[in-house]
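Internal ticket #5521
Category: modeling
Description: The requester needs a full-assembly model to guide mutagenesis choices. All entity lines are attached below as received. Residue total reported by intake: 544.
Assigned to: D.W.
Attached entities:
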Amino acid sequence: MRGGTQRSKRLTEALPLLPFLAVVVVFLVIPTVTVIVNAFIVEGSLSFSRIRALFSPTALGALGSSVLLSASTAIIGAVLGAVLAWLIVSSPPSSMVRRAVISLCSVLAQFGGVALAFAFLATIGINGVLTAWVQQAFGWNLSGSGWLYSLAGLVLVYTYFQIPLMVIVFLPALEGLREQWREAAVSLGASGWQYFREVVVPLLTPAFLGSALLLFANAFAAYATAAALVSQGNPIVPLLIRSALTSEVVLGQAGFAYALALEMIVVVAAVMAAYNVLVRRSARWLR
Amino acid sequence: MKRAVRGALWVVFGLFFLFPLYAMADFSTQKLVGGGRTWQAWVNLVTDDALYQAIVVSLLLAVFTVVATLVILVPTMIWVRLRVPWARGAVEFLCLLPLTIPALVIVVGLRNVYLWVAYFLGESPLTLTFVYVVLVLPFAYRALDAALSSIDLQTLTEAARSLGAGWGTTILRVVVPNIWSGIVSAAFISIAVVLGEYTIASLSGFETLQVQIVAIGKTDGPTSVAASLAVLLFGFVLLLVLSLVTRGRRRVQGVTA
């Protein structure tokens, strides 16, 4: 009896959380559950026809390109982003340059989207500024064969937000390296290279790999930049979802978008789970 | 030697990141026919009716999203800390969940929900506010959580309550002024997210700024480029001001996804 009243008291106390829960349930949980359920339920009964459509050549091709795009930009972004983060860390902590660079990185990494597509159209598109310069100076045609609208173009444009994202997620780990550790290593006779290889690398590896995974998930789920750049064809999963949504007849398969969205949930969730494991490992010594 | 390498790297990164921005400025002021300079693309931002309407819609959405997020999240987070600490893990999990569930997935599953929303509230683009609240939750949560962790919430509220303040007064006049930096962070980051959002708006068929930018891009490149650059610069200034206001006490909040 006592347990019962206590439980009801607990629930009464949780009542003020209802507005928050309502918004999250209606606009996050229900859409996600809708996707998962509809991937398996076709017209009221269990069916794997939508899941099977994921193994059609079109869908597999898009998945392959998406993985290739995400993996290559994750690797490029992680390596170059780590270098840029190292440059930033070795500059004075509260300098204006540093603030400006970090602000620019957050804008490009998180809020760029459509704007980044137009940035590259203005640079190396058909009428792009760099295209015109190079045409004038060397006579080469940079925008030739429209490669900017293919997978290679997407790789280039994606690095423009992957490198800044790497800076933002990797910077805290770099800042966690203490000057005393370097002093300790050096006073024990280590050279600069030895300190880097035997102290810095092992310490930063989990954070580096974790950040790279985050970049992979970020690129895999990104939509706006690719959608603004590529208006025809469906080279990657997000664009295939777009055409499945806007013309419900792709592959003669209504509701195909649900299966594709489920595929995206599975890939991103798996990658993020691995990310969380790595983050927990690097959190042991960070801060 | 080391200095030279470092300097060279700065130059390379600087060129890679700043040249496209410069190209946008150059491209948006070019006369495509006949050469020379023109500000026409920038003038279009306010004189083109569809674009101007879209800018207004996006700004309104930004304001509504910020207000709704703060009204929902601030009391919830305060209440969780004071009265229902057992729910803290769950609330944090829900707030950070949108980082794992792509916006594209949300929009695919949103159709049924939106039928109801349209039924109750009509088909205004401003109904996007609800989804945008979910999108900005992780950023807002981190900013507010950091601010709440830095004050002694228990003592503050007990003092206010024992002096006869109700919950409304306690939150608005005692707690809010103390977590002001977190609230400003949450608001700025939310504004930047909403102004840059394209995925959900375009696939739900609403004419927001980003949707218009893409639509115009098919016929009038310079105007789209001008609008894109304006949004990027606005976001940059917003976040730069934010990092100056918080005066280095904390790193730019909420951006570590």
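Resolution: model delivered.
Comment from assignee: The two ends of chain B are 36 Å apart (CA to CA).
Ticket closed.
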